[in-house]
Queue: 4 jobs
Job 1
Amino acid sequence: MVLVQSNHIVALKVLFKSQLQQSQVVHQLRREVEIQSHLRHPHILRLYGYFYDQVCLFLLSVLILWKSFKMRTPINILCEIT
């Protein structure tokens, strides 16, 4: 494992392997991680990477703070789409 020190603050999502296997979503998660790690779009959170150990899978992504979101209603979102 390579440790890189930076000034970036990231979100760390912890997924338990046993729960993923129990829910039978391992294959789906693999595809989502593969797809999301290659996407570059302003409306999709960027996945920086992942790592795992015997028990957990850890996903590193962009951290979005609540105050950085605009309060939007479903009507506003529909207007943006159309």
Note: Residues 72-82 have pLDDT under 50 and may be disordered.
Job 2
Amino acid sequence: MKKNAVKNNQPKGSQKKSTQFTVRNVPLHVARAIRNKARHARQSLNSALVEALARQAGAQDAGETFDDLDYLAGKWEDDPEFDAALADQDKVDEQLWK
């Protein structure tokens, strides 16, 4: 194995590029906080640490997508032209329904 190579015991084909760190001198209050966060999120300590590192480094998963519309909340603006177009669609043409 090459010097500084990352050993990966995952089956071939399912390997992701990653690395390992050893972190020393973690203050107790930080260790407690990350353990509590992991426990409350019902995830492993490793997952909580990787998420925290990614978030702090500004490197969240680039493929992560959100399918909600939270960014629109509270931004409604009245549009009379749109309202008029909707009102036109609500009109029933009596001639078509005879």
Note: Residues 32 and 38 are 10 Å apart (CA to CA).
Job 3
Amino acid sequence: MSEIAKHWMDGEWTESGTVSESINPATGEVLGQWADGGEAEARAAIAAARRAFDTSHWSRDPSLRNQALHEMADRFEARADEALSSGYFNSRASSEESGFGGCSLASSCASASPR
């Protein structure tokens, strides 16, 4: 089994006291494990986000937020077929056929872009 997926908070990967499994509903196969955060992790993430918002360019630069959204959409799109072929979504359709690809995310990014 692969490494446990952790939380990215305050510029570093963090664990939590609980580890859960991601199960493929179509096969029952364990796909991986992840740090199952609770109230403490939520509070830490909120505090880190507040600090980042208050002390970085993120809050004042819409183009930076737009760039981050587009990068995220590109990364999802690049791995959409991999996710679909895993069987997790109980489909063998391609990202284009399913609408799962980054194109729908890119459309959302475009509507969130500064005018």
Note: The CA atoms of residues 37 and 64 lie 28 Å apart.
Job 4
Amino acid sequence: MSSMRENIRRYRKANALELKDVLSAISHEIGLETEMMRNSLEESWGGIVGETVARHSRPVSVENGVLKVAVTSQAWLTQTRFYTPSILKKLNTSSVPGTSGIKSITYILDISR
């Protein structure tokens, strides 16, 4: 009888999931993980691109390794494209979670800002 209980305990211990793993899987499934990364990126944006560029741009989303950035004018759309290699390098070495997987940036015009 006690060996059966031991086997059950071993099975439970071997197959137990840690709460952090369960929460991570759920947050990934519902898109919360991506939203949290975007919020962290938005908070760090000025440090990554510089304050001047940050006043005229903002990260919108990250999907499949592509960062989408909204800019305030056609001039900034053109200007920020020149900064792409530098921005990618900073993103890939930043402490913002998930940014190391960003491989490219697309820019969109957002005149609502």
Note: Residues 93 and 100 are 7 Å apart (CA to CA).
